[in-house]
Amino acid sequence: MSAMWRVGSSTALAILLASAVVGPTASASPEGQSLQRYGQPPVWGSCEQFVAKASPSARCGFVSVPVDYANPDAAQAQLAVIKVPASGDRIGVLVVNPGGPGASAVDTVAGMGTALADTEIGRRFDLIGIDPRGVGRSTPEVRCRTDAEFDAFRREPLVDYSPAGVAHIEDLHREFAQLCVDRVGADFLANVGTASSARDIDVVREALGEQQINYLGFSYGTELGAAYAERHPDRVRAMVLDGAVDPLLDPVASRERQLASFQTAFDDYAADCAQSPGCPLGTDPTQFVNRYHQLVDPLVDKPAQTSDPRGLSYQDAITGTVHALYSRRFWTYLTSGLLGLQRGTDAVDLLLLADDYLERDESGHYRNQQDAFAAIRCVDAPFPTDPAAWSAADRRERAAAPFMSYGTFTGFAPRDGCALWPVPPTSAPAPASSPGPGKVVVVSTTHDPATPYQAGVDLARQMGASLITFDGTQHTVVFNGDACVDTAVVGFLVGSGAPPAGLRC
Q1: Which of helix, strand or coil describes residue 61?
Q2: How far is Cα 345 from Cα 11, in angstroms, rounded to an integer?
Q3: Which member of 68, 308, 323, 473 has the lowest number of beta carbons within 10 Å of its beta carbon?
Q4: What is the spatial distance between Cα 365 and Cα 148, in angstroms, rounded to a whole number?
Q5: What CA–CA distance (Å, rounded) separates 264 from 288?
Q6: How far apart are CA 296 and CA 92, in angstroms?
Q7: C-alpha dihedral sign at 437, 439, 444, 450
């Protein structure tokens, strides 16, 4: 089985946007006591250095935070921050995180500022995007691989689960980890997790001069938001968490549940495809997975030729498929790519889907989201190191997501790269806590492939939150054009009250 896919997609978020009790004063916090050393208000300037397009009113700057909060006078990181000011009767700030981990909140808010300019959200809130430490335009960045090294990794099939094949895959994991240590540094890697980023949000809140924040988190952004709410419950006015990550699940259980959700989304895609003549997966639901394997499995031994000279590798075919399952709007490109494989013509659409997912641009340059994703994920929970645990997990995952399962169960499986990570975890699975009655709304989509619906149900229960259920096959939904969801979310954020109990859209 392939490694767990990241729970969040900056590209998916771009599509989505194309998606109180006053606590102690700021100076009461440990972060506030050190404002002389870090957390100074940003010097706002043009956003041209950050993003190609942004609202004319947008302003960008940096906020300093300590790399290690236990040693705040030592090395500092610079967090890139964007602000799109409210255009009307201002309520406060709305901090947005698009997920990943590793997606750029600066990019997301730049798009939101334009898309929501004439809405109640744009009029009532300063939109704030903070690129988490190591991510996007924040410095230092987590960048472990060169473009050429990343391209080479994508040519690896990662499917040989013989003892020798498993050893090779684990060697690749170790090589990547060592590159991260060599190019980023063990000290920064040890402090790049969600626990530190949650503290960073409060430093930015204080630097902005706000006593409380409103928060909108997508996908992994729900995990970050829940961590902030647990640490600073009195500083949360209203929080919307869309596409929930359940912080109580261990990483093995979380991965298995996520893979099952991708299988559900694949089945939905295949059933839709079968309604059209010439669907490459045929019309028999019992054969959808077999037909898919007949198309993609030969790529293990011989990549397909494409109009792009790189060709289509097996790993890229799987990545492109997974990316298409994030949104129905991508299904047509998945069908096109599979038809290219079926006809022996050009399957370049699958390669382009993989490029989009991995954030490789037309010049061949990658953004650092995938490297940051790995670094953050690996310190956010302990991963089992016993190879037997991963062999047992492989058996279960093959049953959960047969479309992603190559070959047959061998009794061997590579350990996740995080089981071989060079720095220890800084967080562990634990239930989320409530920041107070009526402060949180969770939105969960029934057939969300990346963040399963049940995770939203469980997170809402843990936080005592209202739950909005959206019936659909896509990853996250807020500000994606569904009037039922958006009306409830906007009403909650502006203070009109919680959504109706049991709301289903």
Answers
A1: strand
A2: 27
A3: 308
A4: 9
A5: 12
A6: 50
A7: negative
> Which one of 9, 55, 219, 336 is the catalytic residue?
219
Take residue 385 and report the two structure tokens written for it: 């190191």
> Residue 107 to residues 54, 90, 97, 217: CA-CA distances in angstroms?
9, 23, 10, 14
What DSSP string describes 425-486?
Answer: -S--------SSTT-EEEEEETT-SSS-HHHHHHHHHHHT-EEEEE-SSSS--TTSS-HHHH
Six-digit token pair at 165? 């094949």
CA atoms of 351 and 362, how far apart (whole Å) = 12
3-state secondary structure labels for all residues of 273-304: HCCCCCCCCCCCHHHHHHHHHHHHHHHHCCCE
For the question of residue 448 being annotated catalytic, the response is yes
293 has catalytic annotation = no
Q: Residue 192 above 60 pLDDT?
A: yes
Residue 12 has pLDDT above 90, yes or no: no
For residue 81, give the amino acid letter.
Answer: V
Residues 6+ apart with CB under 8 A from 325: 262, 265, 266, 269, 334, 449, 473
- Please tell me which residue in 448, 458, 482, 486 is annotated as part of the active site: 448
- 152's CB contacts (< 8 A; 6+ apart) are none
Q: What are 136's two structure tokens?
A: 């996007």
With a CB cutoff of 8 Å and minimum separation 6, the contacts of 244 are 222, 442, 444, 451, 455, 456, 458, 459, 460
What is the C-alpha to C-alpha distance for residues 224 and 209, in angstroms, rounded to an integer?
21
Residues in the chain: 505
pLDDT, mean of residues 41-58:
88
Find the catalytic residue in 394, 475, 482, 486: 475
pTM: 0.92
Contacts (Cβ under 8 Å, ≥6 apart) of 107:
10, 14, 51, 98, 129, 136
- Cα separation, 74 vs 277, in Å, equals 64
Q: Which two tokens stand for residue 221?
A: 């952004």
Write out the two tokens for 220: 């992994």
Name the token pair of 223.
């995990």
**How many whole angstroms separate alpha carbon 185 and alpha carbon 190?**
9
pLDDT-derived band at 50 (thresholds 50, 70, 90) equals confident
User: Is 394 among the catalytic positions?
Assistant: no
- How far apart CA 283 and CA 280 sit, in angstroms, is 9
